[in-house]
Amino acid sequence: MDSKILLWGFLASLGTGLATGIGALPVLFLRDISDRVLDSLLGFAAGVMLAASMFSLLVPAVEIGGIYPAVIGLIIGSVFVDLLDMFIPHMHFISGPEGPSSSLRKIWLFIFAITLHNFPEGLSVGVSFGTGDITSGLIVAIAIGLQNIPEGSGVAFPLVREGYSRFKAVLYATLSGLAEPIAGLIGVLAVSLSTSVLPYALAFAAGAMIYVISDEIIPESHRKGFEKEATFGLIAGFIVMMFLDNALKA
Questions:
Q1: DSSP secondary structure letter of residue 30
Q2: Which of 221, 215, 216, 243 lies closest to 233, judged by CA?
Q3: How far apart are CA 209 and CA 81, in angstroms?
Q4: Residue 3: CB partners within 8 Å, gap ≥ 6?
Q5: How much is the pLDDT for 91?
Q6: Under-70 pLDDT residues of the chain
Q7: Potential cystine with 221: which of 32, 42, 56, 70 (Cβ 3.0-4.6 Å)?
């Protein structure tokens, strides 16, 4: 593995993780943000992730290895995140605790929930750079960074509503994104073991992200009665990612 690719993968996934903290910064100067806006932003994030999964992960997986490795990787990726969801205690402020019972403080369970979201995202960035195509890696990294910004707001404002200070809300949002550079390194290194792993790894990352979109982000954005706003946000995010993917590959 070229050390340049390894460095690119790590730095890009670090940047996407820090974007969560950047997205939390509005909590320092805005008193609050409406649920309608938050759900629209979550929908936008879901649309960006969905398009990135399709155009930057699944399509290349099929082109490189054919349909069967892509399907196998997709299934394994989704099952992997489902198992993490089952066996790692975490909670969402709206839907409540999930996974096994735990005596951990609520804030840490919430951070674990966001970390579960961020791990597949960092993995997808690392795997994309692992292809050796820096342009493809940058497309995925920009997409994940874009969707992490509204996700950061979606973390910080609920924390403030729960009584946490605005500084701590930004801090915890930033901490939740630090799983991404770790996952990014894992992704780059996994692909470096063998080029035959690449289509499986790309599809694995796509499956993991699609699971998070369907199981967590979309339901979360629909729970407060703003399904239509969230849906149009998703469509907008998908379109933005389509243009971004086309522009960078031109």
A1: -
A2: 221
A3: 9
A4: none
A5: 52
A6: 1-2, 87-112, 250
A7: 42
Q: With CA atoms as reference, report the closest residue to 142 among 229, 55, 36.
A: 55
Phi, psi of 226 (to 5 degrees): -115, 50
Buried residues in 67-97 as b, exposed as e (16+ CB within 10 A) = eebbebbbeebbebbeebbeebbbbbeeeeb
Q: Quickly list DSSP for 88-118.
A: S-EEETTTEEESS---S-HHHHHHHHHHHHH
- CA neighbours within 13 Å on the CB side: how many for 205? 40
CA distance 147 to 95: 21
Distance CA 194, CA 191 (A): 6
Confidence at residue 121, expressed as pLDDT on a 0 to 100 scale: 86
Sign, CA dihedral 205-206-212-213, equals positive
Please list the residues that pair with 96 across neighbouring strands. Answer: 92
Give the pLDDT of residue 97.
Answer: 45
Q: Provide the token pair at 18.
A: 């820090």
Task: Tell me the whole-structure pTM to 2 decimals.
Answer: 0.83
Residue 41 CA from chain centroid, whole number? 14
What per-residue confidence (pLDDT) applies to 104? Answer: 45
**Residue 215 in tokens:** 């199981």
* Total residue count of the chain as it appears in this document: 250
| 220 to 19, 142, 154, 190: CA distances (angstroms) | 20, 23, 10, 32
Give per-residue pLDDT as tens, 121-141: 888 898 888 878 888 888 889
Residue 86: per-residue pLDDT: 77
For the residues of 118-161, what is the DSSP string, one character each? HHHHHHHHHHHHHTT-HHHHHHHHHHHHHHHHHHHHHHHHHHHH
Q: What is the pLDDT of residue 43?
A: 93
